[in-house]
Design brief:
With 341 residues, the protein is of the alpha/beta class. The chain is built from 16 helices and 12 strands. Helix 2 runs parallel beside helix 3, helix 3 packs parallel to helix 5 and helix 9 crosses helix 13. The longest helix is centred in the C-terminal third of the chain and has 24 residues. The two termini are 22 Å apart. The mean pLDDT is 93.
C-alpha cells in the first residue's frame, strides 16, 4: 500500500509538526508534496495521485479541494486529518472568513473519512457536524514520550516561583484575559505583585486588555528556543482555552518539567490516567476558580505526578502511527470491497 500525504510538514506549526512525525514513521515509499510553490504543488497533486492507494490530507488548506476531487475522480479513498475547526475558531476569535468556512466544509464533504486529533474533538465534530458523523473518528496525536521519561530533577526544583506562563497572545479563544484577572486577584490579596504573567503568541483582539495589567510581560511571537527556555523557567504553565482540539503547548511544558493547569476543553487530557480536579479549570471564565488553582499549583506543583500518570505506552508517536496506518489500510480495504459489490 502507498499513501500520498498532502499537507504542510515544514513550517513548524502544530499541524505541520504532527504531519512531520507521521511522515518520519510511514514507509519509505510514502509520497508527499516537495515544492513550496502553489502552482507546482497543484501539478504534484495531479501527477502523484494516480500512483497512491489512499490520500491523507493533513490540516486546513485550499489545496485539499483539488486533492480530494482528483482522488474521487480516480476512485481513491481519502482521509482528512483535522487538527482544528477553522469555522468555529475564527468565530470565537471574532475574525469570521466565509471563504475559509466554505473550504473547510467542502473538505469535510469530499473526503471518505475525517480523523480528529483527539476523542474529545471527534465527539464535538459529531455534534456540530451531524451530517458527517458517520465518517468521523479519532486519530489521536502522539507525544515524544522519551522527553517525559528523561526529565531531570533540575527541571522540577529550579524555577521562578513567581512566574506563570501562557501561550496564545491576544487570541480570544485562549481566554488569557481571564488568567490576567485571576492573577490580579492573587496579587491584590497579597498586597504586592506576587506573581507575574508571561504571555507569548501572536497579537489579537484581547491584547489591549492583557497589556493593561502591570504584572504582564507580553512578548509576542518568539522562537522555539525561547519558548523552551520559558518552559524550563516558569513555575506554572496555564492553558485556559475555551476550545482546544488537542493542546501541544501544555504537553511541551510538561515535558520540560513545568507544572500545568489546563481547561477541561484540552483534548490532551485524555492521555493522562490520574488527573485531579485541581489540575483542571472547569469554568474558563471563573477567575476565582483559576486563581485558587494557580495558587495551589505554585505551592505544590503537579509536573512529577502528571508525568508519572501519563499513558506512555499508548501515546508514543510509534503507537499512534501504527493506529493511523491501520485506519488507512481499512479505508483501502473498504473501497476494494465496495468496488466488488
Amino acid at each position: 500500500m502507498k499513501v500520498f500525504v498532502v499537507g504542510d510538514y515544514r513550517t513548524g506549526t502544530g499541524p505541520a509538526n504532527v504531519t512531520k512525525e507521521y511522515l518520519l514513521r510511514f514507509p519509505e515509499n510514502t509520497s508527499r508534496l516537495i515544492f513550496s510553490s502553489k502552482p507546482v504543488r497543484a501539478v504534484e497533486i495531479l501527477l502523484k495521485m494516480p500512483f497512491c492507494s489512499v490520500v491523507l490530507v493533513s490540516g486546513y488548506s485550499r489545496q485539499n479541494i483539488l486533492a480530494l476531487k482528483w482522488a474521487g475522480l480516480l476512485g481513491k479513498p481519502s482521509a482528512y486529518l483535522m487538527h482544528g475547526c477553522v469555522e468555529h475558531e475564527n468565530a470565537i476569535n471574532e475574525c469570521i472568513d466565509e471563504q475559509m468556512n466554505r473550504v473547510e466544509r467542502k473538505t469535510m464533504e469530499l473526503c471518505t473519512a475525517i480523523y480528529a486529533v483527539s476523542e474529545h474533538f471527534a465527539g464535538w465534530l459529531k455534534t456540530y457536524y451531524p451530517e458527517h458523523s458517520g465518517k468521523i473518528s479519532a486519530a489521536i496525536n502522539g507525544v515524544d514520550t522519551a522527553m517525559i521519561e528523561n526529565i531531570d530533577a533540575y527541571t522540577y526544583g529550579h524555577r521562578s516561583r513567581d512566574m506563570v506562563l501562557t501561550i496564545g497572545g491576544g487570541m480570544p479563544r485562549k481566554k488569557i484575559r481571564h488568567i490576567c484577572g485571576a492573577i490580579d486577584i492573587l496579587n491584590t490579596k497579597a498586597g504586592e505583585m506576587k506573581y507575574k504573567l508571561v504571555v507569548i503568541g501572536d497579537r489579537g483582539k484581547d491584547d489591549a486588555v492583557i497589556d493593561s495589567y502591570p504584572f504582564v510581560e507580553n512578548m509576542g511571537l518568539v522562537s522555539g528556543n525561547v519558548t523552551m527556555g520559558l518552559y524550563r523557567e516558569a513555575g506554572l504553565f496555564v492553558q485556559n482555552s475555551c476550545f482546544e482540539t488537542f493542546g501541544l503547548a501544555p504537553m511541551e511544558a510538561l515535558m520540560n518539567g513545568c507544572s500545568i493547569l489546563v481547561s477541561q476543553e484540552i483534548g490532551a487530557l485524555e492521555l493522562f490516567r490520574g488527573v485531579e480536579d485541581g489540575d483542571v479549570i472547569r469554568n474558563w471564565y471563573d477567575e476565582r476558580e483559576i486563581a485558587a488553582k494557580i495558587e495551589r499549583l505554585m505551592e505544590n506543583g503537579n509536573a512529577f505526578r502528571l508525568s508519572e500518570a501519563f499513558d506512555k505506552e499508548t501515546a508514543s508517536w510509534e503507537t499512534r502511527t501504527t493506529e493511523l496506518w491501520h485506519k488507512l489500510v481499512q479505508l483501502v480495504s473498504d473501497r476494494k470491497t465496495k468496488g466488488r459489490k
